[in-house]
Every structure is written in structure tokens, then in C-alpha cells.
């Protein structure tokens, strides 16, 4: 048999919003379903937990992670940790997620943390910078699955005008270059906007180089 050429990989072009690259619908519905099956295996090994802020408040997002590091928060503060709060190492970053990083990050270092954020109907994430990493040359790559989320993008400094966009299941956002330290957050999730997960909710995967 003659070798068949690989089918062209028709991925969407990004929209640039304040230096964040938004790829609407990067993952097909089949790819989203495949990823969800894999993520279920990851959270079976590393169960979702409710992080507590240093001031003692429960975060509304539940979290887990894959990779060498997970990001955790408790009364002792925010930090990267090589173990889950239960003491176990984190599962490996799933292969399709690694491939997505290679395709969009433009970074020759592999991701060391795949944070898994689970948003129920009332969860949100306040405006913040991702700045617990040692090397800001590496971008942050975010993948959305499930219900729509209102994502807010601010400035490099705290305050000032912001811009919002809806992130939908299968969307990817690359936060890198001069926008690496831009404030961002999730104001709310719109329940029942996606059929991917039978009980609804939103999963965000945030990939980062940590060291
Ligand atoms: O859920 C999102 O889209 C953003 C998550 C995020 O910014 C983070 O985990 O640092
Ligand atoms: Mn962030």
C-alpha cells in the first residue's frame, strides 16, 4: 500500500485579545469526549479537593492536577507541590494534553503542571495573575470543557478597564509573551450550555512550566 499523507490538521486561527490568543473550538467534540474519559481516570487517582485560601475561605472551584507539580492552597499559603494533599504524587499529564501544548505553546519546555479546575454552577475565579512560576518566558495554556464561562481579561497592573469573552467547550487560550502576566479571571459559568458532561459544570485545564 502506498503511504497515505496525513490529513491536514484544520485547527482554528486565533483571535488576539490584549495579547491572549483565543482559539475557539480547538478541540472537536470527539476530542473533548476523549479528553473527558482520560480526565475521569486522572481524578480517580488524584481526587478533586476544595482549596482553602490563606485567610481560611473555601475557594468555589474544586481542583486537582497532573504532572510533576500541582498548585495547592491552604492556610499555609499558595504554592506548587509535588504531592496531592493526600500525600500521593500527581498522575502524568495525559498525552493529548501534551500534544496540544506542543501545537500551541511555541515553547520548547514541556508543561510541568496541568491544573484541573472544576467549576460547578456557582463557581468563579477572581481576577489574578499567574505568577508562582519561575520562568515567565513560558506561556500558560488553558483548555475549556463543558459549560460556557465568562472570562475577564485585565491589565498587567491591578485595576483599569477589562474585556470579557465567553469561553466554550473545546476552546484554548494561550497567555504568553507580553501578556503573560495579565490579570484574568472567571466571573461566572452559564449552567446547561453544554451537553458534554451529563451533570453539567465546567472543567478548565491550565498548563504551566513551573521551574
Ligand atoms: O478557568 C479558567 O479559565 C482560568 C483558570 C485560571 O486562570 C487559573 O487556574 O489560574
Ligand atoms: Mn490564572
Short structural summary:
This protein has 211 residues and is mainly beta.
Architecture blueprint of SSEs:
Blueprint: E1 15-17, E2 20-23, H1 29-45, E3 62-66, E4 70-74, E5 77-81, H2 95-104, E6 113-119, E7 125-128, E8 140-146, E9 148-153, E10 163-167, E11 172-175, E12 184-190, E13 202-208
Antiparallel strand pairs: 1-2, 2-11, 3-6, 4-5, 6-13, 7-12, 8-11, 8-13, 9-10, 9-12
Bound molecules: 2-oxoglutaric acid and manganese (II) ion.
Structure, described:
The protein is mainly β and 211 residues long. The chain has one domain (15-49, 57-208): Sandwich (Jelly Rolls), CATH 2.60.120. It is built from 2 helices and 13 strands. The protein has helices at residues 29-45, 95-104; strands at residues 15-17, 20-23, 62-66, 70-74, 77-81, 113-119, 125-128, 140-146, 148-153, 163-167, 172-175, 184-190, 202-208. Strands 1-2-11-8-13-6-3 form a 7-stranded antiparallel sheet, covered by helices on one side. The radius of gyration is 17 Å and the shape is globular. The protein starts with 14 loop residues before the first strand and ends with a strand. The mean pLDDT is 96. The site of manganese (II) ion has 3 residues, from loops.
Q: What best-fitting shape do the alpha-carbon axes yield?
A: globular
Strand content: 25-35%
Structural class comes to mainly beta
CATH superfamily: Alpha-ketoglutarate-dependent dioxygenase AlkB-like
**Biggest β-sheet: count, sense, barrel?**
7 strands, antiparallel
Helix-strand topology string = EEHEEEHEEEEEEEE
CATH structural class: Mainly Beta
Overall helicity: 10-25%
Main sheet: strand order: 1-2-11-8-13-6-3
Overall number of strands: 13
